Amino acid sequence: MANAKRWTPLFRNKRGLFFSRRIRGFSFPRNENEAKKMLFFSYFKELVGKQVTVELKNDLAITGKLHSVDQYLNIKLENTRVVDEEKYPHMMSVRNCFIRGSVVRYVQLPPDGVDIEILHDATRREARGG
Amino acid sequence: MSWAGAEDIFLSTSLASYLDKKLLVLLRDGRKLLGILRSFDQFANAVLEGACERVIVGDLYCDIPLGLYVIRGENVVLIGELDLEREELPAQMTRVSSAEIKRAQKAERDATDLKGSMRKRMEFLDLD
Predict the structure, then answer these.
(1) Taking the model in full, what pTM does it have?
(2) What are the backbone angles phi and psi of residue B113, rounded to the nearest 5°?
(3) What top-level branch of life does the organism fall under (chain A) (predicted)?
(4) Is residue B4 a contact partner of residue B12, using CB atoms and an 8 Å limit?
């Protein structure tokens, strides 16, 4: 396996070849679709530790401290409270929960939760193709 | 390959920190399953041991035992860790038998069906 170490392009776009390599724990997105998703993943990672309200597609809304997010935008909340507690009595004793990314409709953030400027810049960078 | 350390597990979004705990799994069709998480994967497929379905109708509830369940991840909405210190349900709720809860469910369904059919019959009145 003499060539095992050689860098092989993962995909090619207008700007050139994308190689697989890791920089400080950040791995390059494997395709353009994933690259776009990474922006929101990075964005949610910034929000860890903040108080958020997650509204699900079944209208259940849960408030809690954002514990972590992953690549699918699955969310883990700590110290949760359901917004309409009378309607969902079964959620009474749930304090920590895992929410599947695919069922989330909205994530309501604290007003100071994000620097719009930075997000805006990052979006333009992504739109230009990295 | 190395195993993730205990602290990594608690920081990550994976379900590893919920293993061997009693959980409430909310499904897309609104069902609520309770059980002990024994296994999972990246799609949130999950294995619940000693699973039961909690049926709630108004102030009545019933736990219907199901056994060992494998849940396909796409049907999972939420997986909640139950705080054993707290009451699982409000105090005014009463536990009833499975036969009774089925009757209550049917009564509720019939009531909504009736409401729907009444509405359909009165549609010509152009309500709301």
Answers:
(1) 0.78
(2) -60, -45
(3) Eukaryota
(4) yes
